[in-house]
Specification:
By secondary structure, the protein is an alpha/beta fold. It is built from three helices and eight strands, in the order βαβββαβαβββ.
Length: 124
């Protein structure tokens, strides 16, 4: 999965420092046009699948920042301790755009990431 972002360092700060993801890779690379970029991969602790943080390159990609799934929730973060994680994220200034609610599959609250994409925080 790729998340298009405006700035690598701000995205790393959000995903690593705020959400608690691990920084798996941050390597220099080149775009198809030969311009410098970085290959940045983060993942939740213990996960085997990572998220590529890709800085927008060009007008079309800039326009996609925060709108990768047309304003819908497109990403999901399942946690073992919902209350503790929710409280930690609120204290860190993460914007929750819907209040916590109970569903058949567990508790859920919707937050936005550094790029403006919506995520479900899921737990028991």
């Amino acid at each position: 999965m790729t998340i298009v972002v405006a700035d690598y360092d701000a995205a790393i700060g959000f995903f690593v420092d705020t959400l608690g993801f691990e920084l798996i890779e941050d390597s220099p690379a080149l775009t198809g046009g030969g311009e410098s970029k970085r290959w940045v991969v983060v993942r939740p602790p213990g996960a085997t699948t990572g998220v590529l943080l890709a800085r927008a390159d060009g007008d079309e990609q800039v326009a996609a920042i925060g709108r990768q799934v047309a304003g819908r929730v497109g990403f999901f973060l399942r946690v073992d301790d919902f209350d503790a994680t929710h409280a930690r994220l609120v204290a860190a200034g993460v914007e929750f755009v819907r209040p916590t609610r109970a569903e058949a599959y567990g508790r859920v609250a919707v937050f936005v990431d550094v790029a403006g994409n919506r995520w479900d925080l899921l737990g028991r």
